[in-house]
Automatic annotation (TrEMBL), chain A:
Region Disordered: start-end pairs: 90-167
Protein name, UniProt field: M-phase phosphoprotein 6
GO BP annotation list: maturation of 5.8S rRNA
Pfam family, one: MPP6
Comp. bias regions, Basic and acidic residues: 102-126
Superkingdom, natural source: Eukaryota
From TrEMBL, chain B:
Name of this protein: Ribosomal RNA-processing protein 40
Domain of life of the organism encoding this protein: Eukaryota
Entry keyword annotation includes rRNA processing: yes
GO biological process: CUT catabolic process; exonucleolytic trimming to generate mature 3'-end of 5.8S rRNA from tricistronic rRNA transcript (SSU-rRNA, 5.8S rRNA, LSU-rRNA); nuclear polyadenylation-dependent rRNA catabolic process; poly(A)-dependent snoRNA 3'-end processing; regulation of gene expression; TRAMP-dependent tRNA surveillance pathway; U4 snRNA 3'-end processing
Residues covered by the K Homology domain: 164-212
Length: 167, 243
């Protein structure tokens, strides 16, 4: 077999054809996009939060800025009041509101003392021995040190990938 | 920073800003898995402790493991769900600007009234008194008000207050007056027919048949702030006798 001295190169005319141009364009586009990604990734600074292992907060804290909500379980609060039938509409609505609030408190108190059917079944089902072994297992679990510091949410973890900050 | 030791239930626990709460005390009602509801006057600090930020009496409610500091002040800070008395200071196309005694005026939507539509809007002038409910409040924005009950859509006592007289009292006294079983109001109601509205922002509106009654009621309310029940009844009695 005779040696082919020249390299097999595509002819110039072939290169000008549409389907070859499309391929070229695709390649250049990919290259540009990669370049853009690289620039953008380097411009965005992200703190590596896996290194800083913040412990879970001790208490879960809910905030309630209103004093009235604190004492709602003990006393009613009625804004408008009327005495000796000065304004009978207000008197009626005031006594209604007070009655409703008291009813809610009573219901809440009742519901607290009640135990749901599922929980009752659970309690009955567990034997004493099973209860004791469960408690022993729980206490022996090692606990992480806890703080109240509100930990910022951990990212999904991209490693070296570009993580776009949420706009 | 001072640390507080929990004392017996019957004693009043007075806290000053900077006093830390003991964790063992806070976990007493920990049946609900370490959940804590902090009311006004308490805040968690950087070193993971709960610290008082206001001076007052530390209070606790077992329901929901609530802790708060019962303090008194005169400047109102808007909180959602509270009923307040406001004065209209400005009108725009969509909102009324209402002065509620907070650091910023609050906004009351023009349509936030019972049965209000674009065609049928209530018309309030500058200087009108309104009894409203705070529908949204946070420390970064102006509070928003509404003049109706959000669940039913009815007025329920909210709206314009016509006539009468407004006095300014401390916030602690205003909260005590909201109790329908309040002693001063009940005693006054036995002698004088009147109506009133209490705003959690420290304003009380009183309306009665003549000026003498109104002045008597306002004086009685102001005087009752630091009196116990016996002194209160004596005070009301002496005022009524002079009438």
């Amino acid at each position: 077999m005779a040696e082919i001295p020249h390299k097999t190169a595509l002819s110039g005319k072939l290169l000008t054809m549409k389907f070859m141009q499309r391929q070229q364009e695709q390649e250049t586009r990919d290259k540009l996009v990669k370049e853009q990604n690289r620039i953008v990734t380097e411009a965005h600074w992200v703190i590596d939060q896996t290194a800083v292992d913040l412990p879970k907060p001790k208490f879960q804290v809910d905030y309630e800025p209103s004093f009235l909500q604190m004492t709602a379980t003990e006393r009613s609060s009625v804004g408008r009041m009327s005495f000796q039938k000065f304004n009978s509409a207000v008197e009626k609505s005031a006594s209604q509101a007070a009655g409703e609030q008291q009813l809610e408190r009573e219901l809440k108190r009742q519901r607290q003392s009640e135990i749901s059917d599922d929980e009752m079944a659970k309690e009955m089902g567990r034997s004493n021995k099973a209860k004791k072994t469960k408690e022993a297992a729980k206490s022996s679990q090692s606990k992480k040190p806890t703080t109240n510091r509100r930990a910022p949410p951990k990212p999904s973890g991209g490693g070296g990938k570009f993580m776009k900050p949420k706009e | 920073m001072a640390s507080i030791t929990t004392e017996e239930e019957s004693k009043l626990l007075i806290v000053l800003p900077g006093d830390q709460l003991p964790e063992s005390g806070l976990m007493e009602d920990s049946s609900a898995a370490h959940r804590l509801t902090l009311g006004p006057g308490l805040a968690p600090m950087d070193d993971d402790s709960i610290t008082a930020v206001k001076a007052g009496i530390l209070k606790h409610n077992a329901v929901g493991n609530r802790w708060w500091v019962e303090s008194n002040q005169r400047r109102y800070v808007a909180a959602q769900g509270e009923s307040i008395i406001g004065v209209v200071t400005g009108k725009s196309a969509e909102h009324y600007k209402v002065d509620i005694g907070a650091s910023q005026p609050a906004l009351l939507g023009v349509l936030a009234f019972e049965g209000a539509t674009k065609r049928n809007k209530p018309n309030h002038n500058i200087g009108d008194l309104l009894y409203c409910r705070v529908s949204m409040a946070n420390k970064d924005m102006e509070a928003e008000l509404e003049c109706m009950n959000p669940t039913t859509g009815k007025a329920d006592g909210f709206g314009e207050l016509k006539g009468g007289f407004v006095i300014k009292i401390s916030l602690g006294l205003a909260r005590r007056l909201l109790d329908p079983k309040n002693l001063v109001l009940r005693l006054l109601g036995q002698h004088i027919p009147f109506e009133m509205a209490v705003g959690t922002n420290g304003k009380v509106w009183v309306n009665s048949a003549n000026a003498q009654h109104t002045i008597l009621i306002c004086n009685a309310i102001r005087n009752s702030e630091y009196l116990n029940s016996a002194e209160c009844s004596a005070m009301v009695k002496s005022l009524v006798e002079k009438m």
